[in-house]
């Protein structure tokens, strides 16, 4: 037997149904904010990533030469593709509010909340450099977490790379890269490990702790800090989730230029649930006009972990029914009944095996159906259906002209 590749996942119907509901919820919330859906290719030229996203991702790509000898890769993340799409079109009316939900691939060590193939929702606003756009994408992220039922269990942590650049230049001069390295992985280290890394990188640990705690802001003021506070105020006005300024949030990718944010479980025991920020230079680097942009991404694996932890990763009852047939007349009649139900928006699964009614009811129960439509010659003659509730055992007869009662 051929085994599944490490870092990849199979999704059986019972899991895929939950995922479909989660993904649809994410998409619906994006559309409710006026975002339009887009998609792109699964494979891009390596040239698109070589100097745009930082060394970490370029070493994790599923890259290869295609049959034309070109260096290509399965896409590891969406922002470069998005930027390419915008730079290609000169007729787009900005600001753009776009979202996508698709698969990505990274060749990295599989672990909890991280796989080599994963789904990711991306939502971006392109063409606005205002803090209003920063607040809008962040409130969309908060709205999605609220709609998934986990907003009370998580917090938004926001910051600014512009603010951090000025703080580090003032208090840890010429140590930007080293400081970001430690701050970005602050939760990964014990106190002893932080001390060791700080010594290796010749950083003052006490100053780093002062920055990480946020206490350094007591002695600091700047226009960027004022703008960040206004952004936070707008997010708080939307409500539904805790928001805090956190100087540890710097985001690891090379292209962030200003506002950055992440969502974490309140105990900070998992990895970041989502993250994003402002990337104002990428589109112009790809040959397009300068286009300020801000966005975020949510991976499916961490969302699944936290929802399972909170008991929310469960199948929800829907209006689906199973149609069981007693005899030949019932089989013939089931074609008409199934079509009427489907036209009413009721998913209708028909029996496709020659077996008795008891076996059909047993199958329907195992498949998770709450209601079964039973059809036979009597129902055909009376132009009716029998609806059986498998949970309560109750059943009733409904005229076929009143099938909409099943919907209600």
Which overall shape is indicated by the principal axes computed on the Cα atoms? elongated
Q: Please identify the top-level CATH class of the largest domain.
A: Alpha Beta
Under CATH, the topology of the largest domain is which? Answer: BirA Bifunctional Protein, domain 2
Number of helices: 15
Mean pLDDT: 93
What CATH architecture label of the largest domain applies? 2-Layer Sandwich
Instruction: Please identify the structural class as seen in this structure.
Output: alpha+beta
Uncertain ranges: none
If you had to describe this structure to a student in words, what would you say it looks like?
The protein has two domains: 13-309, 2-Layer Sandwich (BirA Bifunctional Protein, domain 2), CATH 3.30.930.10; 321-407, Rossmann fold. The chain has helices spanning 13-32, 55-58, 79-88, 131-147, 161-171, 176-184, 191-200, 205-213, 223-238, 282-285, 300-309, 328-343, 357-366, 377-382, 404-407, and strands at residues 36-37, 43-45, 63-65, 71-74, 96-105, 117-126, 154-160, 242-245, 259-265, 274-278, 293-299, 321-325, 348-350, 371-375, 384-389, 395-399. The chain starts with 12 loop residues before the first helix and ends with a helix. With 408 residues, the chain is an alpha+beta fold. It is elongated, with a radius of gyration of 27 Å. It is built from 15 helices and 16 strands.
Keywords summarizing the entry:
BirA Bifunctional Protein, domain 2, alpha+beta, 21% strand, 2 domains, 8-stranded mixed sheet, Rossmann fold, 38% helix, 408 residues, 5-stranded mixed sheet
């Amino acid at each position: 037997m051929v085994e599944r590749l490490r870092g990849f996942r199979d999704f059986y119907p019972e899991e895929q149904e939950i995922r479909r509901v989660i993904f649809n919820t994410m998409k619906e919330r994006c559309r409710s904010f006026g975002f339009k859906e887009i998609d792109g290719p699964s494979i891009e030229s390596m040239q698109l990533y070589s100097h745009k996203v930082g060394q970490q991702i370029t070493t994790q790509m599923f890259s290869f030469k295609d049959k034309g000898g070109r260096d290509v890769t399965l896409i590891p993340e969406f922002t470069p593709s998005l930027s390419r799409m915008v730079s290609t079109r000169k007729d787009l009316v900005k600001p753009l509010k776009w979202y996508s939900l698709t698969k990505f691939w990274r060749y990295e060590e599989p672990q909890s909340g991280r796989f080599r193939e994963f789904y990711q929702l991306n939502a971006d606003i392109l063409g606005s450099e205002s803090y209003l756009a920063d607040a809008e994408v962040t409130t969309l992220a908060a709205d999605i977490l609220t709609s998934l039922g986990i907003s009370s269990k998580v917090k938004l942590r926001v910051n600014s790379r512009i603010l951090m650049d000025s703080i580090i230049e003032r208090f840890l001069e010429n140590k930007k890269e080293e400081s970001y390295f430690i701050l970005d992985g602050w939760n990964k280290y014990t106190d002893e490990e932080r001390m060791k890394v700080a010594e290796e990188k010749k950083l003052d640990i006490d100053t780093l702790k002062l920055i990480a705690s946020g206490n350094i802001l007591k002695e600091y003021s700047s226009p960027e800090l004022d703008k960040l506070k206004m952004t936070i105020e707008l997010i708080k006005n939307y409500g539904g989730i805790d928001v805090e300024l956190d100087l540890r949030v710097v985001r690891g990718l090379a292209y962030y230029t200003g506002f950055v944010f992440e969502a974490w479980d309140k105990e900070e025991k998992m990895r970041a649930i989502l993250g994003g920020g402002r990337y104002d230079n990428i589109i112009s680097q790809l040959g397009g006009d300068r286009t300020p942009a801000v966005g975020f991404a949510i991976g499916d694996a961490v969302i699944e972990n936290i929802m399972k932890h909170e008991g929310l990763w469960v199948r929800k009852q829907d209006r689906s029914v199973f149609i069981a047939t007693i005899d030949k007349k019932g089989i013939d009649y089931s074609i008409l009944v199934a079509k009427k139900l489907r036209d009413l928006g009721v998913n209708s699964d028909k029996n496709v095996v020659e077996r008795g009614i008891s076996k059909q009811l047993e199958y329907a129960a195992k498949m998770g159906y709450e209601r079964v439509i039973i059809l036979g010659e009597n129902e055909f003659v009376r132009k009716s259906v029998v609806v059986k509730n498998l949970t309560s055992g109750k059943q009733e007869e409904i005229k076929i002209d009143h099938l909409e009662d099943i919907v209600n």
